[in-house]
Amino acid sequence: MNEAADGAVSAVRDGAILRVTLDRPSRRNSLSRPMIDTFVATLTAAATDDSLRGIHIRGAGDDFCSGMDWVATNSTGQRPRTGDLVRRIPHTSNRVVELIHTIALPVVCSVRGWAVGLGCNLALAADFTVAAADAVFWEPFIGRGFSPDSGSTWLLPRLVGLTRAKQMLLLGEKIDGRQAAEWGLIHRAVDASEVDAVSEELLSRLASGPTVAIGLAKQAIGYGQHATLTQSMNQELYNVELSSRTTDFREGLAAFRDKRQPDFQGR
Predict the structure, then answer these.
(1) Which domains does the chain have, with CATH numbers?
(2) pTM for the full model?
């Protein structure tokens, strides 16, 4: 398969922000296996890059991502080995969702058009998703004859509750960007012409914050989803111990004392 048909995931540094583009517009940015491998490698490298302070994920063209390209994956005519999904998926599409959810950097997704299956779950795993009001969020797994994957059964109930999660996962109901924002599924829905401006404002705010403290706060929020109150408070104490040793912590105290805005450096 040639590169154009296979698609690409491009990553470009823009100051302290890593801009990741899912680039396969002819297939609504459905993710081929090579694209997912690149996506995993890109996020893994970003996780250990101390100069980064934010990640922006978007789709090329009119859509965000229409999910995993199952047609291409299953068109070889060769029956996969038993257990193929169990061996492979944890290191590919599932790993992308895990990295977006756990990476110690703020992640912003800009969504236009379709966000389907894995594409929908990428947007849900991000810290903030800004979507066009007419974008479409859809979990079509049951309608295709297989059970939901890529974290949808974990993400949706926590974001919108069991009833709405079942509407999307068991009935396959589509919701638009405005409804997604009303449900609390995403951060904000705006006119399509405003998606870029709103995303940029959010990225600028996050990338100028105390990056270590933001990463630790993100980790604590994730930990708290499966912990007791006491366990969460204990985890917070360890995180406070770490964040209080940063340069940004000292700058935050100095700015408070001097009654000025802090100038955080992400250190």
Answers:
(1) 8-208 (3.90.226.10), 211-258 (no CATH)
(2) 0.91
